[in-house]
Each structure stands twice: as structure tokens, then as C-alpha cells.
Write a structure and sequence with these properties.
Elements (H helix, E strand, L loop, with lengths): L2 H13 L3 E2 L13 E7 L7 E7 L6 E4 L6 H21 L4 E4 L8 E4 L5 E3 L2 H14 L13 H16 L7 E3 H6 L2 E2 L4 H4 L2 H8 L7 H8 L14 H17 L4 H30 L7 H18 L12 H25 L1 H9 L3 E10 L3 E2 L6 E2 L2 E4 L12 E4 L6 E8 L2 E8 L18 E5 L32 H8 L1
Parallel strand pairs: 2-7, 7-8
Antiparallel strand pairs: 1-9, 2-3, 3-4, 5-6, 10-13, 10-17, 11-12, 13-16, 14-15, 14-17, 15-16
Length: 490
């Protein structure tokens, strides 16, 4: 935890309410996201119990598996869930946008919108991931055939779970993660994983402060768990007898309705919390880089939707080359995401300033017309001195950029009591005189950082056929050596 984050938590304890750690919203929130509140049977990793799902706070759909250990009932539940999720996917595409041709001259399109799935916590993400894995390979023919929509649902859930791992993606988000990105509470990170406790600190009910609301959230009767796990007392005293009664009745609809009512009582409080959280997020101004990240989400959604019919279900495990490429992409996306959040938000940038990776202050000296004539041709290289009280932990020669205009880059020449002396190297135009407003003037307050949206370029990975057999490639051709021949003869 950063020093600023610790300070925000201490201030939350003193004030009795969560403190903002962001001035803008760092994620996209759709006009009609698909909210899912899942429950699973205790002790069964892949036995869904119920899900409350919908795109409007006053219009939820409740799907229940009255006997989660019954395979037929589980996959009937998956088929109903598939209809709702796939319908949301198809109706969320929006109009098609035509984009300029790519590097190879191919025509490109992008959907004007994309589906967004919201779950209460990381456990909900893990539930969707596991459900995707358990359904995407199911056969639609034969003795154990499932509804044709079930494997399609599995492939989409797997894709959404993979996009959740991509830093900055908003296609599948856990609400507790999103809220912690914008507020700091006076409780531990583990307690922040409880949506009711977290919302109790951020938006406490009337007459309660954050700590009191968080204590109330620990009462499983007043605030049932946000799923996918259920409360043990509810399991033993309420749920187990209700399922047993359903079994004894032979599936009587009346016992099924009573079971639905009981489960609805567990899901409705979390459903209401989810939509309260959505409204809190919508009230925040959107960060400048959020639309660009949402464009990339729409690009990924468009490509997967367009190629869905041609591709096979995702493999259970990535082959080595694909795994290395995926890890490389995630690392690059993480660097870019951290930089974009810092450029968008001065509170986020403050954490990097405290860590010594950024510095800010007024410009005390400026030579905007300075030229470097040591080479064959003169180059525009203005000098800028920034007086700062920040702890600068950057080496001489480090490349930095302006937080307000990341295109304006410079190199650290000197660090002393008078501040930091920079030699600007880019982002000022192509002429020997800087463009108007490109170079900060004396008295301007600036912030420079070593963060960049692309700290390293894309790596080139070999094709699978060009890797050794230990990494998925074909085995090499066997050519016997002299020693092999001697051993065979002997």
C-alpha cells in the first residue's frame, strides 16, 4: 500500500466515511450493463444454485437450480442463463463503424458499443470463469446432449473472464475492485472484498457512519453474502431443508416457488447494492483515457464476435508461445494503464510523486529557443528548470514526459537544490522554433514523470512450428551419430 493510500485510510477512520482516492472515474460504465449476482452450492465448485440477472434495477430475472446436484437441472439453468446473456451480447453491439484500412490495407469495422458484465466481487468473476470452462466443451449431440446455446455461453464467459485479466478492460468488472479503485475505507483489504461493508463506508445509510454500517454488513441476516458463497447458517437451517423438501415432493412447483422466494431474499440486497454502486460511479466525471480503452474493448469484442463461428472453443491451457505472448501483452497493458490513470488523475499522480517517479512544481528558468548544434544539423533542445520539493529518485539521463501533455518529452540533465533541469527532446513541433504553447513558460506549474504508455515495444514470438518439442513444436528429425551406431552394433 502506498503512503497516500495509508493516509487516506487513516483519514477515513477519523472521518467515519470512505475517502476518495481518485478525482475521475477510471472505468467505463455502460448505459445498461448486465448485472449478475451468482450463488453456488457450498462445497461444490461448479454447482450453480441461482443467479439474479438484468440490465435495469427494477427488472431482475431470477434463475434457480432447485437441486444443484442434478445434472439435468444444472444444464437447464445454463440454457436459460445463455438466452439472457447471449441476448444482451447481441443487443449491445450498436451500429457498425467503418474504420480506416489497417497496415495491410484490409477494411476494418468496429461495433459502436459492447456488452458489459458486472458482478459483485472477484468470486463472481471466478464463478463465471469456471462455468465457462465447464460448459464450452459440452456436446450438443449424443446421450448427454445439452442445449446448443450452452457451449456458446461457455465460450463467451471464458472470453469475458480472459478480458477481465486485461488491465483497464471494462467488459467484465468486479464491483468491489472498481470501488476500491476510487475510494479508501477504514477497514482492511480483506474486509473491502465484502460489497456490503465496502458500500457501508462509501455510502452509509441514513443515521449510520461508515464503521457502524460495516458492522451491520457483517450480519448475514441483514446483509446476506454477495455471493457466490452463501452463509453457512442459511445453508444449514434454511437452504438444506428447502432442497430436501423439493426432493421429497418430486419437484412439486409449490416447493420450488418457496425455494425461489428464500433464494431471492439472499440475492435482492446485493442486487440493490450493485445498482447503488453503479449510480455512484456514474456521478463521477469520466477520465480522459477511458474512451480510448473502451475503444480497444470494442475492437476486441468486434473481432471475437466476427470470428466466433470460425474459431474452436478456447483450449483448457494455452500452448507455450500463446501463453508467453499473452503474458507480454498483459505486462504492456499494465504499464499503459498505470500511466494513463496517472495522466488523468492528479491524486493518482501524487502517489508516483511520493514514490519519486514524478515531480512537479513551478518553472523557474526557461530557454525555449536553445539549439543543440553538436551534430550535423541543429536540433531544438530547450532547457527547463523546475523547482520541486518532491523526492526525485530518478537518474540523470532518464526520459520523462509532461503529465498534462505526454507528447512533450525531456531528459533529466541535473538534479540539485534549485530543482530539476530538463532538456526537452520532443513534442514541440518539427521546426527549429517551438510551436506556440508547446514549451512551458516561467511561472507555469508542471509535472513530469518517467511513466509512459508504452515502456517497451511489442515483442516478436516464434511460430509454434519453430519452437522445440519442449515448447509445443514438432520433435526434431532423428539423425543417428557414430556413438548411436556403435551402441546399436553392440
Amino acid at each position: 500500500m502506498s503512503a497516500l493510500g495509508s493516509l487516506a485510510r487513516l483519514e477515513a477512520v477519523r472521518a467515519g466515511i470512505a475517502q476518495p482516492v481518485a478525482t475521475v472515474r477510471h472505468c467505463h460504465v455502460s448505459e445498461a450493463p448486465l448485472v449478475l449476482v451468482p450463488l453456488k452450492l457450498a462445497g461444490e465448485a461448479a454447482a450453480p444454485l441461482a443467479v439474479m440477472i438484468g440490465s435495469a434495477p427494477d427488472d431482475p430475472s431470477l434463475l434457480v437450480v432447485p437441486q444443484p446436484r442434478n445434472r439435468d437441472l444444472r444444464f437447464a439453468f445454463a440454457a436459460e442463463l445463455a438466452k439472457l446473456v447471449l441476448n444482451h451480447i447481441e443487443t449491445s453491439r450498436g451500429e457498425v463503424e467503418e474504420l480506416p484500412p489497417g497496415k495491410e490495407g484490409d477494411e476494418r469495422i468496429r461495433y459502436g458499443n459492447a456488452p458489459q458484465l458486472l458482478v459483485p466481487n472477484r468470486g463472481g468473476v471466478a464463478f463465471l470463469r469456471l462455468m465457462g470452462r465447464s460448459t464450452r466443451f459440452r456436446s450438443t449431440e449424443g446421450p448427454y446432449a445439452v442445449d446448443p446455446a450452452v457451449p456458446v455461453l461457455g465460450r463467451w464467459l471464458t472470453w469475458f473472464a480472459d478480458r477481465h485479466d486485461h488491465p483497464g478492460s471494462s467488459l467484465l468488472r468486479a464491483m468491489t475492485e472498481v470501488l476500491r479503485l476510487h475510494w479508501a475505507t477504514g477497514q482492511s483489504s480483506v474486509e473491502d472484498g465484502n460489497l456490503a461493508a465496502l458500500m457501508g463506508w462509501i455510502d452509509p445509510p441514513d443515521g449510520l457512519d461508515g464503521p457502524a454500517a460495516a458492522v451491520r454488513a457483517e450480519d448475514p441476516v441483514a446483509c446476506p453474502p454477495a455471493g457466490p458463497a452463501t452463509d453457512p447458517t442459511f445453508d444449514n437451517e434454511v437452504l438444506a431443508p428447502a432442497i430436501a423438501a423439493y426432493d421429497r415432493s418430486g419437484g412439486d412447483p409449490r416447493t420450488g416457488d418457496r425455494l425461489r422466494t428464500l433464494i431471492a431474499s439472499q440475492l435482492t440486497p446485493t442486487w440493490d447494492l450493485m445498482w447503488r454502486a453503479v449510480e455512484l460511479l456514474r456521478a463521477m466525471p469520466e477520465g480522459a483515457s477511458v474512451p480510448r480503452r473502451w475503444e480497444r474493448d470494442r475492437d476486441a469484442f468486434t473481432y471475437y464476435h466476427q470470428t466466433f463461428g470460425e474459431a474452436y472453443p478456447q483450449a483448457r491451457r494455452d500452448p507455450p508461445v500463446r501463453a508467453a505472448r499473452r503474458l507480454h501483452d498483459l505486462e504492456r497493458a499494465q504499464d499503459a494503464y498505470e500511466a494513463q490513470r496517472a495522466f488523468d488523475d492528479p491524486l493518482v499522480m501524487a502517489e508516483h510523486r511520493l514514490a519519486g517517479q514524478a515531480f512537479g512544481g513551478p518553472v523557474t528558468e526557461c530557454d525555449p529557443a536553445r539549439l543543440d548544434e553538436t551534430g550535423k544539423r541543429p536540433k531544438l533542445r530547450p532547457l527547463l528548470r523546475v523547482r520541486t520539493e518532491d523526492p526525485v529518485r530518478l537518474d540523470l539521463g532518464t526520459t520523462v514526459c509532461n503529465a498534462a501533455r505526454p507528447a512533450l518529452k525531456g531528459r533529466i540533465v541535473e538534479i540539485g537544490d534549485g530543482g530539476v533541469l530538463l532538456e526537452l527532446t520532443g513534442g514541440m513541433g518539427r521546426k527549429l522554433t517551438p510551436e506556440p504553447g508547446a514549451v512551458p513558460q516561467v511561472g507555469d506549474r508542471v509535472c513530469f514523470t518517467s511513466l509512459t504508455e508504452g515502456s517497451f515495444g511489442a515483442a516478436k514470438f516464434p511460430d509454434r512450428e519453430d519452437t522445440p518439442w519442449t515448447h509445443g513444436g514438432p520433435p526434431g528429425e532423428y539423425v543417428p551419430t557414430d556413438e548411436d551406431a556403435e551402441e546399436d552394433w553392440s
